[in-house]
């Protein structure tokens, strides 16, 4: 059954989204599909969130491996795949992604007679927001704890440990923001991979280190090399003071943006709860 955008023949997104749905249904068993468009945070036309059926032979994170051609062809969209168990668990953790992107207004396809993913009206708004804040604070605290010796390393001119510490702080912040902007996070220790994961969901953070700007990408490479040196004893050329200063500025920016984006998500989540009578 089609819903919302796919029932509006004059909607400019309808044609491409309908093509995507037909292709996705050919390759996998699907319960529901959602499409959400958000302000200037998102890098492209919108996010397509697919809820995989319990009878699917493939686990939801395996789908990325064999549907990459669809993602490449329809690169105007960002794709995310989940099953009901994951969504239920994340709702319990207060993950705002699913309230914002998987609701009655964003639903575009559902299997006939399929039960709704969750009832927003049955979720305790206060408890949900408390859990969201608790998770966010725990993730950002990891970054702060890791960075407690950063000033010491910088003041002592230890550029290697300074770069490594910044690298670790960036990773934890990327994990934090990925959780509430994409509904999950990737455990990768590579900042480049963490940034790539966010690139289809947040313009500002997906290009924190711009690969088209040689100087910025060089800073990122020095951070990655610093991790290899500290954790695996790789031999490297030591990071420069200029790179450490540049990376620290990026870190400060990411801290500010992470906090700002979380607050924006929470305010939008509150409004959805309010619209459903939850206060």
Structural notes for this entry:
The chain starts with 13 loop residues before the first helix and ends with a helix. The protein has helices at 14-27, 63-66, 68-73, 84-92, 96-101, 125-146, 150-155, 159-182, 191-198, 203-206, 214-232, 241-275; strands at 30-36, 46-52, 77-83, 107-110. The chain is an alpha+beta fold. Helix 6 (125-146) runs antiparallel to helix 8 (159-182), helix 8 packs parallel to helix 9 and helix 11 (214-232) packs across helix 12 (241-275). The protein has 12 helices and 4 strands. Strands 3-2-1-4 form a 4-stranded mixed beta sheet. The longest helix is centred in the last third of the chain and has 35 residues, at 241-275.
Secondary structure elements and pairings:
Layout: H1 14-27, E1 30-36, E2 46-52, H2 63-66, H3 68-73, E3 77-83, H4 84-92, H5 96-101, E4 107-110, H6 125-146, H7 150-155, H8 159-182, H9 191-198, H10 203-206, H11 214-232, H12 241-275
Helix pairs in contact: 6-8, 6-12, 8-9, 8-11, 8-12, 11-12
Give a brief rundown of this model.
It is built from twelve helices and four strands, in the order H-E-E-H-H-E-H-H-E-H-H-H-H-H-H-H. With 279 residues, it is α+β, with helices and mostly antiparallel strands.
């Amino acid at each position: 059954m089609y819903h919302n955008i796919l029932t509006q023949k004059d909607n400019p997104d309808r044609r491409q989204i309908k093509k995507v749905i037909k292709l996705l249904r050919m390759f996998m068993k699907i319960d529901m599909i959602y499409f959400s468009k958000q302000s200037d945070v998102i890098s492209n036309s919108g996010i397509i969130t697919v809820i995989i059926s319990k009878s699917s032979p493939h686990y939801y994170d395996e789908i990325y491996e064999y549907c990459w051609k669809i993602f490449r062809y329809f690169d105007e969209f960002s794709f995310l795949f989940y099953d009901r168990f994951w969504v239920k668990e994340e709702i319990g953790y207060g993950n705002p992604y699913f309230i914002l992107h998987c609701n009655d207004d964003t639903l575009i396809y559902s299997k006939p007679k399929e039960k709704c993913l969750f009832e927003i009206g049955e979720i305790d708004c206060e408890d949900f927001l408390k859990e969201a804040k608790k998770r966010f604070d725990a993730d950002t605290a990891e970054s702060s704890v890791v960075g407690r010796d950063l000033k010491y390393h910088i003041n002592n001119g230890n550029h290697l440990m300074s770069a490594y510490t910044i690298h670790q702080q960036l990773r934890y912040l990327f994990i934090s923001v990925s959780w509430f902007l994409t509904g999950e996070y990737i455990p990768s220790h590579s900042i480049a991979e963490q940034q790539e994961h966010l690139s289809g969901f947040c313009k500002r953070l997906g290009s924190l280190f711009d690969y088209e700007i040689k100087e910025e990408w060089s800073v990122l490479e020095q951070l990655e090399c610093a991790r290899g040196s500290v954790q695996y004893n790789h031999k490297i050329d030591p990071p420069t003071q200029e790179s450490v200063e540049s990376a620290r500025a990026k870190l400060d920016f990411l801290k500010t943006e992470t906090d700002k984006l979380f607050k924006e998500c929470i305010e939008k989540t509150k409004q959805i709860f309010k619209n459903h009578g939850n206060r």
